Amino acid sequence: MRKTINVNLKEMNFKQLFEQISPEKISDNVFTLVGKIFPVVTAGSENHFNSMTASGGGLGMLFKKPTTWCILQSTRYTLEMIQKEQTYTLSYFPKEYKKQILFLGSKSGRDSEKMKEVKLTGIKTPSGNISYKEARLIFECKLTEITTPDPDDFYSLEVKDYIKEMYKDTNEHRKYVFGEITHVWVKK
Ligand SMILES: Cc1cc2nc3c(=O)[nH]c(=O)nc-3n(C[C@H](O)[C@H](O)[C@H](O)COP(=O)(O)O)c2cc1C
């Protein structure tokens, strides 16, 4: 079945590939989703978009809205594009795309051709956000908040040490990026 989908993937449009579900209907275990599968974060327009690999983060409620959060280093080109567009997608892929997902996390789109080189097929959602035909689950997000925690905001000794080590040679603090989930799409 998967083979048939792959063969036809290139010709299929968004509505043929994906169906919308409500956030309550997401069947993935949240800890598997955010802890074991690396999401691809994508921002930009059809003519110019950029993606990076992320890890960690979470799903929950913020200001009474279903929300995702992720932790992005301030230098990421994708973060710059999220700030510009104020919308973005988190895309989750089947295991067979691991190589491409790691590739998107291997170099910055700011000074490389990775977006031309990556063997994934970009697709525009009905709202104009960008994801990939190969994704199995897509969250479209509207930027709610970007927060930069101070190293003094951390309390557990283990985390304090980790943060101290992480920030010792850099001022590039990680940004906590919260986005309201506006649409959830799953592969048909
Ligand atoms: C498995 C994996 C997980 C990653 N997780 C994160 C993350 O959570 N936050 C982050 O800022 N960078 C993370 N990175 C690094 C970025 O994906 C990487 O620096 C990427 O090249 C940034 O691309 P950009 O500058 O085009 O946005 C991860 C990389 C990999 C391979």
Keywords:
188 residues, alpha+beta, Pnp Oxidase, Chain A, binds flavin mononucleotide, two-stranded antiparallel sheet, eight-stranded antiparallel sheet
Protein architecture, described:
With 188 residues, this protein is an alpha+beta fold. The protein has a single domain (2-146, 178-187), classed as Roll (Pnp Oxidase, Chain A). Helix content is 26%, strand content 35%. It is built from seven helices and ten strands. The strands form two sheets. Strands 1, 2, 3, 4, 5, 6, 9 and 10 form an eight-stranded antiparallel sheet that branches. The model has no long low-confidence stretch (mean pLDDT 93).
Concise account of the structure shown:
With 188 residues, the protein is an alpha+beta fold. The protein has helices at 2-9, 14-17, 30-35, 77-85, 98-104, 114-117, 157-166; strands at residues 18-21, 40-44, 49-53, 58-62, 65-73, 87-92, 122-124, 130-132, 137-147, 174-187. 27% of the residues are buried.
